[in-house]
Specification:
It contains nine helices and 16 strands. It is an alpha+beta fold. Strands 3-5-7-11-10-9-8 form a seven-stranded mixed beta sheet, sandwiched between helices. The protein is globular, with a radius of gyration of 21 Å. The structure holds biotin (BTN). Biotin binds next to helix 4, strand 7, strand 10 and strand 11.
């Protein structure tokens, strides 16, 4: 994939040589690229080329984009892993330092919230996890996922998607479609210290085939911004913003970020439903978040609070004829 990324023709022989593999292995790798959603042209006598050039994740480019912040991160860029969260959780348990990042071109078992799978396309999404360590215990980190979502929205708003917003607890949305999801997994002692693996899946450029294979409304950053996106630059910007937000959170929790989160709340004041894991549904008007990150919902009896592990949120579709 790295060799083909330039969009030029490469013979099977040259690809085999570049990868230090056999021609048969190259053939299998090409099939894997196609299965991952890339279009590969094969022309007798010329070899293979991608339908369009790809910007593969690259340590040197990332370091350049990170600038002085590069020293805060340890970057690991495997081509493929089962899940960057799963891989980083094992590294965290083995003592990896805060700031370790695993960013993969492909995940074979990407995981989403509430036991769902996370689908992403080869070379056209960002799927990465960041390890952060806290002196506080895991119980204190309840609002962390909201803070992480805010970091992603800040970056998108600064990069041509001014109407990027948040859907509690941490989906990043644009015009009702999901652009990014965040899965946070914690390790550590109840009283601290603790470690958080912050997994981010960000759609950069989804093909129609991938979009059609996802059972919810999704979009991507290129469509939302109307401009090409360089993945290394975007990943670096998100890492820098995550570090800034995590520093704030480690110092003072969600409180200093709450107002900004509410200003980005795509569902503020809207009629929504929360669905519990057991299928029960409750409705109300979204009234933002509490200082611990709980969703506040106004209903007939007052303000109800919901915590993110328990429920998922969905907007109530506008009724026909309603103003
Ligand atoms: C969700 O919206 O359900 C959360 C999706 C989180 C997906 C990311 S992709 C990188 C990291 N590795 C995983 O297996 N999941 C997260």
């Amino acid at each position: 994939m790295r060799t083909l990324a330039d969009g030029a023709f490469h013979s099977g022989e040259a690809l085999a040589e570049a990868a230090g593999r056999s021609r048969a292995a190259v053939w299998h790798a090409i099939r894997d690229l196609e299965a991952g959603g890339l279009v590969v042209y094969k022309v007798r006598g010329r070899g293979y080329r991608l339908q369009q050039p790809l910007d593969v994740l690259d340590a040197a480019q990332l370091a350049r984009c990170l600038g002085p912040a590069a020293s805060r991160f340890t970057l690991l860029l495997p081509g493929e892993v089962d899940s960057t969260n799963t891989a980083l959780l094992s590294q965290a348990a083995a003592g990896a330092p805060a700031g370790t990042v695993i960013a993969a071109e492909a995940q074979t078992a990407g995981r989403g919230r509430m036991g769902r799978a996370w689908a992403s396309a080869l070379g056209t999404s960002l799927t990465f996890s960041l390890l952060w360590r806290f002196e506080q215990g895991a119980g204190w980190l309840g609002g962390l996922s909201l803070a992480a979502g805010l970091a992603v929205v800040r970056v998108l708003r600064a990069r041509g998607v001014p109407d990027a917003g948040l859907k509690w607890p941490n989906d990043v949305v644009w015009r009702g479609c999901k652009l990014a999801g965040i899965l946070i997994e914690l390790q550590g002692e109840a009283m601290g210290p603790s470690a958080a693996v912050i997994g981010v899946g960000l759609n950069v450029r989804l093909s129609t085939a991938v979009r059609d294979g996802i059972d919810q409304a999704v979009s991507d950053v290129e469509r939302a911004s109307g401009a090409p996106v360089e993945r290394n630059a975007l990943l670096a910007a998100v890492l820098v913003e995550l570090a800034a937000v995590l520093d704030t959170f480690a110092r003072a929790g969600l409180t200093p970020l709450r107002e900004e989160w509410m200003a980005c709340d795509a569902y503020a004041g809207r009629e929504v439903q929360v669905r519990r894991a057991d299928g029960r549904v409750e409705a109300g008007i979204a009234r933002g978040i509490a200082e611990d990150g709980a969703l506040l919902l106004a209903n007939a009896t007052g303000i109800a609070r919901y915590h993110s592990g328990e429920v998922s949120l969905r907007p109530v579709p506008a009724r026909e004829g309603a103003a």
